Structures are given as C-alpha cells and as structure tokens.
C-alpha cells in the first residue's frame, strides 16, 4: 500500500511538472507570435504609406494634365472666336464701303432727278400757257359758232347725242335681226339634221296590232279534237278565255279572234298545251286555262326584264319592269305599245347623244313615257300624269319624271329631256302606217261594253265577241236564278241602248251554269 501511494504521488508530481513545463513553453510561443504580428503590422503600415504617397502623386499629375488640356482647348476656342470677329469686322468694313458707294450713286441720281424735275416743271408751265391760249381760241370759236348756228353748246351736244342714239339703235336693231335670222336658219338646219340622223339610225319594224292571232297545227285532224263532240270543247275554250275560236277551211291553222291581246295570248298558249298533251275535254280545258292565266304574269315579268336588258337600262323598280312587260299586250291606235316604247327609247338615246345630253337617261325616259297606259287600275287622270306619278312613286330621276309628265304638254317642261321625248314620241307615232286611229276607238268601245255589263250585280265575267256584235255574260248561279238571268239580259240591253253608240245590233247572251262539286276520299 505504501508503494502504491508512492507511485501515485510520483505520477502526480510528474504530471504537475509536465504542466508547468508546458505552460512555460506556451508562454514563450505566445510572446514570439505577438512580436511577429506587431512586426507585420508595422510593415503593412509602411507599405500603405508608400502606396498612398504614390497614388497622391498620380492624382496630382492627372489633375495637372487635365488643367493643361482645358487651358489649351480654351485658348484654341478663344483664338477661333477672335478669328471670326476679325472676319466679321472685315466684312462690315467692306459693306460700309459698298454702302458709301451706293449712297454716292443715289445722291448723283437725286441730283439728276432734281434737274429733270425742273425741266419738266418748265415744260408743264409752257404747256399750261399753250393750253390757256388754246382754250381762249376755242372759247372764241365756240362763241362765234353759237352766234352763227343760233344754238348754245349744251343744245348742240344734246342734238348730237340724240342723232348718235338713233343711228346706233338703227344699226343695232339691224345687226340683231341679221343675227337672229342667221341663228334661226342654223338652228333649223341643225335640228333637221339631228332628227334625220336619228330617224335614219333607228331602224324599227312597224308593229301593227291586229285583233286576230293564228295558231298553227301540224294536221287538220287536230281541228276535230279542238271542236269536240257537238262543239263542246270549242265552247268551253271560248267561255274560259273570252275569245272566239274560228275553225274554217284554212289548212293547218286556227284563227283566234279577240280585241284583248292578253286573252288571245292565254288562248294561244292554252291551245298549244292542249294540243301537245292530247287530252282535250272541257274539264281539262278549264284546268289548262287557269294555269296559263297564272303563268302569264311570269311571262310578263320575263318580257319586261328582257326589254330592259336589250336596251341596257338598269336599276328599274320591279313594278315598273312588270308594267313594261304588260306593254307587250297593249296597243295604242293599232301600234304595239312595247314596240312603240322601245322605238322611242332608241330615238331618244340617239337624239340626246347628238345633242350632247345623257343618252342613258333619255333612253330610260323614252321607255317609260307611256307607262301610265298600262296602269292596272282604272284612273281618270291622263296617262302622262299617271305615268309621272308612278315614276315619282318608284323614285325615278326628276328629269325622267318631268319628261314622262310633259310629253303631251300636261305640265311645264323643266329639262331638255322633255322636248326630246316629246319629239321622239311624235316621230314614232307619225311614221307612215304606224298607227290606225279607228283601231283604238274600236277597242275602247269594246272595253266600255264589257265594263257596262260588269257593273250589274251577280256578273262574274263578261266577254265582247264578234267584233262587239255579241256580249257573253257569265253570272253566278248561286245568286242569279234563271228568271233573273232573263231579266238581267234585258236590263243590260236597255242600258247599252241608252248609254252607248254602236253600229248595227248587239246580242246579249247571259250564261248561267250550275255546278255541284264533291270529292270522294
């Protein structure tokens, strides 16, 4: 145990000695490190001082260089401005020299002008003296003349003025008369030339409307089918269309007679369809005629559109196009209205072009000038005024409206198109053989005859036949009895005798047909 304590103590003493030695070593090392750090700090301070001194010297040198450069630039700028000032001073001196020379010249010219002015004053004085002398002599001569002529100066002047006025008026009136005569002669020649050129350049056919149409057939065997058993087919066709069908010995032809072109056209087209179909009996005839009446409106529109295309007229209202097509089935004094209007349109275009006016507008006015004649409703206005109202309604050009209304002098002409349309209408209507006055009055008499019969109650349809010698009246079987039909025929005949004038006699036939229709379903 004593050894163990000794060993422990010896170990502790050794550790203590080691610790002391280690502390001494560490202390010596710390002092050494501190001395080295102080030495490094001093060296860094010395290096920083040396570097700062070098930077300071560089900045001072740089500042001196900038100063010298600025100084040099300033001296150069000052030198340039000084040179400019010197140059400007030299220019001013030169200008002063030039101005002084010019002033000297001006002074010399002023002196010359003063000299000339003095000479002029002297000349004016001499002229004034001479004028005064002449005035005295003139006054003396006038006084002597007044004494001789026994007239004052004012009286002589008045007489002279009056004489000159009379002479000038005589010469002026003579000159004006010569100018007017020459102008009238030239205008007449020019007008005749334009009209003749227009007529010669417009080659149109004379389309005279007749009251018959010819329907061609392939063989005479078809005539028997058209007539039907005991003539029932032909009677049904005449009753449905309002025309007279004449089947005679004329080979391969049937005559359709009627004053209304629309009815004749309906009858012709219906016959054409019936012959092509082959089925010809009263029921089929009525069916085909009803369809044809509907299709005729489409044909009228097609005719109007084709006419506008042929004449190069665009932008026409659809209602006006329909009326243009309706002209195809209307005649004026025997002259087909559509052919007449086409001819007037072409004449107007040619004449307007010759005179330097708008040819397209003139052509439009020429086509529409008789549009009032095909107005669908009866009107008491003249056809020119009615056509003007229609053109105004469908927004035509004011010059076209005036030309339509003024072509028969119902209104005042306000544009140059109006006399052109009036002249061309007269040219078209006055061609030899173009019109027949009797035809128009004949058609009017037949229309009045039909309208008179239609004014009675219960009348559905009415057709004037046999050139107005027969009147066929279709009545409603539900409202008119057999007895009433006989009385109606008598009343119509009495009214015709009182209100109308006609040659020969008129046969009034009242047709009352009873039909009962039912359908089996």
Molecular structure report:
It is a single chain. With 521 residues, this protein is mainly α. It folds into 5 domains: 49-150; 151-201; 207-311, K Homology domain, type 1 (Ribosomal Protein S8, Chain: A, domain 1, 2-Layer Sandwich), CATH 3.30.1370.10; 317-433, Hypothetical protein af1432 (Orthogonal Bundle); 437-513, GMP Synthetase, Chain A, domain 3 (2-Layer Sandwich), CATH 3.30.300. Helix content is 71%, strand content 7%. It contains 14 helices and 8 strands. It has a 3-stranded antiparallel beta sheet with strand order 1-3-2, covered by helices on one side. Strands 6-7-8 form a 3-stranded mixed beta sheet, covered by helices on one side. Strands 4-5 form a two-stranded antiparallel ribbon. A hairpin with a 6-residue loop joins strand 2 and strand 3 (253-257). Helix 10 runs antiparallel to helix 11 and helix 11 crosses helix 12 (417-429). It is flat. Residues 205-209 have low confidence and may be disordered.
The CATH superfamily of the largest domain turns out to be Hypothetical protein af1432
Largest sheet: 3 strands, antiparallel
Q: Any idea what the shape is?
A: flat
Helix content: over 70%
**Integer count of domains:** 5
Order of strands across the widest beta sheet? 1-3-2
Highest CATH level, the class of the largest domain: Mainly Alpha
H and E string: HHEHHEEHHHEEHHHHHHEEHE
Number of helices: 14
**What is the name of the CATH topology of the largest domain?**
Hypothetical protein af1432
The termini sit apart by 151 Å
Strand content: 5-15%
Low-confidence stretches: 205-209
Write down how many β-strands occur, each being a DSSP E stretch of 2 or more residues: 8
Q: Architecture of the largest domain, according to CATH?
A: Orthogonal Bundle
Radius of gyration based on Cα positions = 62 Å
Mean residue pLDDT: 78
Tell me the structural class. mainly alpha
GO molecular function: hydrolase activity; RNA binding; RNA endonuclease activity
Subcellular location: Cell membrane
Keywords: Cell membrane, Coiled coil, Endonuclease, Hydrolase, Membrane, Nuclease, RNA-binding, Transmembrane, Transmembrane helix
Main location: membrane
